[in-house]
């Protein structure tokens, strides 16, 4: 729940006389509030405050300012749109400043979809077109005072046209009408309009299908409503990856970003992926203040990349200070409205302190904790994973090239700190349990301390640009410390991006010195020619870095067995029936002589098993010579417990997971799931892709919603994705056939 005070809007209207402005507030597609109308005023002051219940999956909050017309149609003066990311970046302080209204062109700002089922039938008397107009949904500038519209649909085919009925006061019209036209040829155009009793109807959007599409791939499904084509996009943006971004819905974009980063990271290509997405995002941004504020594939991919790669780094930087805050349980409060003097006995043996003393003491504690956190962050350049540093370096360069000049000097810093401080460090400080920094959530008092610290870290990440503009003036005593920290943060960011991309080290997910994971496990090494006893496992303390997997009797033990990570060639689960023990895994390594050695490890529970599988696979992701298969069992009783083969050196009977899946520490580690998620999204957009492949075959000058110079690029990218879908389907059918043949060959026939 967020409280958004709507104070005032200053606008200069290019018209004679005065206006009667009011404001509509929308959360995604829903109008949630409307202010009173301020009559005959060009500089309205509302002073109204609204408490909005924002759903967790909302995308943006929009404010539309309109001029009320008591006779005809209300005019849209302008709007402000705040993305979820922009609101989160301003939280918990909120946005308390003047924002420029942007122009709203109803014929260009079209953000809706229409559900169609079109059939072109050939009959003796000529062709017959059946257009089933089912429903529509859209998020447009409000047309009526209520923030809704009175939509109807109109179709054009050749020289003929038909209309549906008008559905009153809705943004989700459901027509379920079949419109039929006879004896014509040419493109089909479907338009959606808002009916107006007085004055002209308002355009809501359109979609057009050329004749070839009607014949070869009749439209069926949801289609985006488009404005009348009058602008050309950059041809370079039309790539298969860009189209995946376009055909995916906002709800699925975060999942797609996660799976793409996992897949590319497993192949050592995550950094080039991020550079492509960031370059596309930066190139399409005109206002540096809105950079990476939208729910784009680029911003989601960058955020997921940090979580996947940077968790050990985050732990090493923040855990000492977070643990100290939890253990000391100090009472910290700067807000006079929240200070509880009865709690001050904890910080004084002289009884209750005054409010001034509480604030002084709290300020000292906050600056102490902040100093420790800032020292840990700014001194962590060498601890940051090289892959993250190179990704930030490339982002730094792209932003610098896109927004040159002294007036944009800080943009290249804010682009990085917006991710690193606002989306990585600050959320982890606010809720340590969600980042595995603590096992339990904080108590209310500690939680309040963490909130104040997170606010301060956010302000530092914003380079102090919003200091003094918000409502929380009680944070002012902290401002000198925050402002003094900005120079250190900039120096830190300069050092962070100062890394050689050519050295190859950036493909490593962790720096050599970092301890990725450690803890007690039970281990048994299977030596060549020897049997593995069932109860021969010994308790040892394991320590994993990017260079070695070592173990000893205790953490402080000097005698250690060390295995170079570069020799790991498989990290897999072990069947429970191999040793009659649960939560088993194996690490297969190759000696200098080429001999394969297997280390069997037992974990305490399934979560610990997943954590160690993930950690060792991450550390060995770039190894060469990974095994394509291995045995999920053990060689006991002169045979493998999994496939019952009696040859110890026989090829493994189960494929390995060398294409590592990198998720949260509790990730089930199924690499097929990531590819399946992307494949499913491609299938959902298959009909749209089929339609786009025909664009290049349209005659020159043929009217289409897609600009003519862009058609060939769009069609080629769509064809590429369709070819991928076809290849995957063929591979799936071939695998099914192979499994059927194997099953048939193993059965007994009379």
From TrEMBL:
InterPro entries: C2_dom, C2_domain_sf, PH-like_dom_sf, PH_domain, Ras_GTPase, RasGAP_CS, RasGAP_dom, Rho_GTPase_activation_prot. GO terms for biological process: intracellular signal transduction. SUPFAM superfamilies: C2 domain (Calcium/lipid-binding domain, CaLB), GTPase activation domain, GAP, PH domain-like. GO terms for molecular function: GTPase activator activity; zinc ion binding. Residues 252-462 form the Ras-GAP domain. Pfam families: BTK, C2, PH, RasGAP. This is RAS protein activator like 1. It comes from Monodelphis domestica (Gray short-tailed opossum).
